[in-house]
Structures are given as structure tokens and as C-alpha cells.
Request: fold
Amino acid sequence: MERIRLTTAQALVKFLNEQYVDFGNGPERFVEGVFTVFGHGNVLGLGQALQEAPGELTVYQGRNEQGMVHAATAFAKQSRRRRIMACTASVGPGSANMLTAAATATANQIPVLLLPGDTYATRQPDPVLQQMEHTHNLSITVNDAFKAVSKYWDRIYRPEQLMTALLNAMRVLTDQADTGAVTIALPQDVQGEAWDYPAGFFRRRVHKITRRLPHPEEIEAAAELIAGKQRPLLVCGGGVRYSDAGAALRDFSEKFAIPFGETQAGKSAVESSAAYNLGGLGVTGNGCANTLAAEADLVIGVGTRFTDFTTGSKSLFAHPEAEFLTLNASPYHAAKLDALAVVCDAAEGLKALSAALEERGYRSAYADEITQAKEKWQAERVRLAGVEYHAGRTAAANGTGTRAVAHAVASSDAVSAVQETGEQAAFVPEIAGHLDEKLPEYAEALGTTLTQTQVLAVINELIPHDAIAIGAAGSLPGDMQRMWESSVPETYHMEYGFSCMGYEIAGALGIKLAEPEREVYALVGDGSYQMMHSELVTSLQENKKINVILLDNAGFGCINNLQMEQGLDSMATEFRRRGKDGQLSGELMYIDYAASAAGYGVNTFRASTVEQLRSALEEAGKSEKSTLIDIKVLPKTMTHGYGAWWHVGVAEVSGKETVQAAYAQRLSGLDKARSY
Ligand SMILES: Cc1ncc(C[n+]2csc(CCOP(=O)(O)OP(=O)(O)O)c2C)c(N)n1
Ligand SMILES: [Mg+2]
Reply:
């Protein structure tokens, strides 16, 4: 048998170069490159291999290990899990920095290969720099923490272990039902140790990704169930996108007159304008989808994990006879909500179910409820798009269509497009009383009259329709799931499995690496920007242009809302200076985010009027390098809930009446929710 003498790290790099996947269109390279922040734990072992024989792998330099793993995750997510990046970090803090992003990838079921350096297998120099010593167990290192956030975990103590580890890594990285972060910890000494690897290990491997076919018996049972129902509702999850099943879902909805709501991961599988697309569903969903969800007698989940945001903590599907049917590649997710489960690929499942329903001549019993609900929501969207802070109060613009209003608002005679309606157009009803009182302070401190919903409408209208919008945390995912119209499939990239602040900008870089021809817009709150934006520098280094749309509302806005809605006072959720009373109650902080990014060499713009926003978007569009628009928006001008309950941990005992009231509401909400 032919053997090749290589170090562990060299064998790893050689193997990764030979991995291909075939999703039915022939073999495609699976591993695009390796993100790295080098340290003593990886620069001499894996670093040597990547320097001397990288093969086709591009080496990217990350700025923060969490950021680079987010970039790698977004790269794979935008590639619909057909291409991945590997990420290597040094031992100790460098590795630990990858943990949050590993969890983000795993929560979202996105493949990413993590290669943290590890302490010495021989233990000769122990404790090596950055080693954490557990007196009760010397085999535990920082990397054991990845066990909780990985779909596959291994540590290589001997060079020959690498072979089974890598074969298993590939199994999990290409698993359509159960993938996520794969962690292979590489002790510093073992990376450089050599072994005679059998040549066959490095043969080109094409991992054929087959679609799991539904069992005919399950399809028959599913068709029977649907046939007995009048008002079924489809839930379009991320699995629809990973299975390329958007068109199949749209056809299915039209053929049988079954409307569908979108989850954050499923949005943009089908264009927003499709006849049966109700838009966002659930806690961050809109009034239209949530109304129909409450009346559905059958919920058909396609490729969804049914998170609490989708189900309103299991309260949204309130019809007394509502039943559940699921199409999911994962038996685990298919079994949720005690559903009738069809374990299958989404596209294949819809195809088979379509045939079975056609045989039965099925059509739902909806009359014009769908159009009516959609029109009602459009009117609300128009209101949200036009809401301006005007003369000390909020006002709503009248308009005939959202796009029309966005145009009107985006035009220079915006002010004349705004009509005082006389009615309070509050966003967060529970705090409406504070609004008139607080808005002048907000407007003064931030020097703006812009509202978040208005800003989103303008951006949605003015950026190219094939541009990709990415978001992750704060109030933006909710506002975007409700208000954002995706006219081109695969243009909405929301990380809402972990909703990890800091994913937005790093993720935008990953998307741009996956789709260099398209414009990418990272929509990010001021809090999330502060938490992490360092891969903005990597975008300049790589000449991969990304656009940062920063909405500065001087605080952790959505958490401030949550806190105040549930009966508490504002505390440590607004960006206020420490006041004379010793609390964080002083003046709001004004931060020049544009100046911070300008220092990196990013093209920056400032906007506190619609006119400025409009011209900034135009200029940013023309820029060859990364841009940032620092948009000051009034706090509390995000959208509020549209009929979905969310189970949150309100205190059972409190001296505050408002908290006691919130707790009573928690109990009554729970009363209406399913318990499993
Ligand atoms: C890493 C991380 N830490 C904490 C949270 C909890 N959290 C969710 S949203 C949020 C505030 C976000 O603030 P900002 O980005 O300014 O968005 P806004 O709500 O103001 O629109 C926090 C702290 C989180 N999602 N991720
Ligand atoms: Mg904020």
C-alpha cells in the first residue's frame, strides 16, 4: 500500500482539498478556504501546512475569532450549506472566542469546521501559556467547552486518529438533517507530528447529497388529514430554502389555495408578492399571517423548527381543532407539536403530497379572507412606512401602496407627504404614554426625527432588489420580518436561531465571499455594532464591499421595550451616562459611528433626515469599497407585536404593581398556550 509521510496538519489540509459535494448538479468543491487568527497554538503546525501546501484553499485573516466564524457561517448559510469554510484559532482565548459563533452555527444548523489549537498531548511543557488547569482532571481543556455547541467533537492525540475524525466530520458537515459546527481540537504538538498516511485516504471524495424521499404511507396519511380540513396554513421554514423548494411551495400553495407564513429562516424562499405569501409569522410576524394562523384548522410546517417566535410560545395556532403536519428532513423536528410527521426533503415531500391531493381534487375553503387580511396588513405597512415624528408628535402619512409611500417619504417634499392624522401612531402601546414626553429629548439628543419603520421602508425601496439584506439581533429582525419585501428569492439572510449580536457585519462579509457579484447590506443596531464590527476591516483587506446600515437609537432598544412592557422601569438598556443619582439615568450618549468607521477607511455617511438617507444610499451604492451609513433614529419607533404572545420570565413576586400585572398576564397567556 502506498503511503505518504505527512504531519497531522498537512494531512488535514490535503484531505480538505479533496472534498466535493454533489447536490445533483455534479461535483462542487466543498471547502472554500480557511479563516485564521494565528497564535502559538496553530501558527507552526496548521500554519506551516497552510503556508507550504494550501492546495486550493484560500487563507483569510480574521480579526476576532468569533467574527471570522460568523463570516464562515454566513458563507455556508448563503451557499445553502453547499460550501463551507474552516476556521482555525490558537489555544486558550483564541479558541474560546470561537465558542459563541460555534453555538450560532449549530443553533441555525449551518455547517462550519472549527480547528482550535489545543494544549500539549505529551503534557511536557504544562502548563503551556493559556492552559487552564483542572486539578481534578488533567484531560480537560478549554476546547471541551465546544462539546456543548458542536454537532461533532473530537480531539486528535495521535496523527492516525485524524482519519476517522475527518470522515466523521464530513458525515456531519454534509448531513441535511442534523448539521452544525464540527470541532476538531488539535493539540499543538500533534499538529506537527508525522505519520505514514495511506494514499487512499486522500483520494477525491464526492459526497453525494441525496434527497430523502417521503414514505408513501406517510404521504397518504398526510393527504387524508389535509382533505378533512378547511383552513390549512403552511409554515415556510429555512428547510425550504436549503432544499431549493421555494417554487414547489409556491406552486403547492396556489394549486390548493393554502396560504403560507414565513419564518425568519424561510423568508425569501418565495417572493413576498406571491398570492398566498402572508409574510412573517409569529412573535415578529405581521397582523395578516398571525390572524390567519389563529384561525387555521391545520398547520403544515415545512422545514421549520417551530421555535417560540414562530409558534408564539405555542399559543398562536389557537383554533380549538388545530392539528399539525410536518415535512422535515429531521425526524426530531418533524415530531414537534405532536405532529403527523413526514420525514423527507421539502421539495420531494411537496411533490408527493401535491400528487396525493390532486387525486383527491382538494382545495381549501378560504373565500376572500386571504386577500382581505393581506390588504389590511398592507395598509398598516403603509402607515408604518410613513410614520414621521412631526411637530412634537407622531403622525401617519396616507398613501395608496407601500412603495408609493416610500417614494413620497423618500422625496424632498417628504414633509408635505406627512399628514397629521390626529390619532396617536404609537409603536409600543404600553409605552405610548411616555412617547410624547420622551420624544423631544430623543430628537434633541440624537438630532433626528427619523423613525425606524420609515427608514426601513426607504431602504427596502431604494437598494437593488437583488441585494442581500442581513440581520440578527435587536429590534431590526422583527421590523424586517414584518416590513421587508423580498422581491427576489434568497435576498433575506436573518440569523434568528441564536439571534447573536455581532453576526451582522461579520456575516455580511461571509455573504459577500459567497456572492461577490451582489450588493450586501448589513442592518445593525447601535448596540450590536458596538459589540462587534471588526470584520469590517477584513472586508477592506479582501476588497469585498459590504454596506453597513447602522440604526442608532441610543440603546438596547428591544430589550428596553421588553423591560418596560413587563412592568419594570428602564435600567441599563438605554445608553445613558451615569447621572447624579448614581444610576445610569443621565443624558443619552451621542456617538459618531461614522467617524469610528471612517478611521478604518470605510466610506461613511450620516443620515438624520430622509433626504440624507436617500442620497447616502445612492452614494453607498456607487462606492467601490465598504460603506457605513450612520442613521440616527428615534428610540421606540420600531414596530410592536401583532397578536402573538411570547412567554417571558416575569417575576412571580414583586413589590411593583406593574410587575404583578405582567405576571398575571403571563399566567393567562400560558393558560391559552399548548403545553407540548
Ligand atoms: C451576543 C448577544 N448578547 C445579548 C443579546 C440579548 N440582546 C438581544 S437584542 C439586544 C439589544 C440590541 O441592541 P441594538 O443592536 O442597538 O438593537 P435595538 O434593539 O436597539 O434595535 C440584546 C442585548 C443577544 N441577542 N446577543
Ligand atoms: Mg439600539
In short: The radius of gyration is 26 Å. The chain has a mean pLDDT of 93. The pocket of magnesium ion (ligand 2) is lined by residues 474, 525-527, 553, 555-557 (CB under 6 Å). Residues 524 and 550 are 5 Å apart (CA to CA).
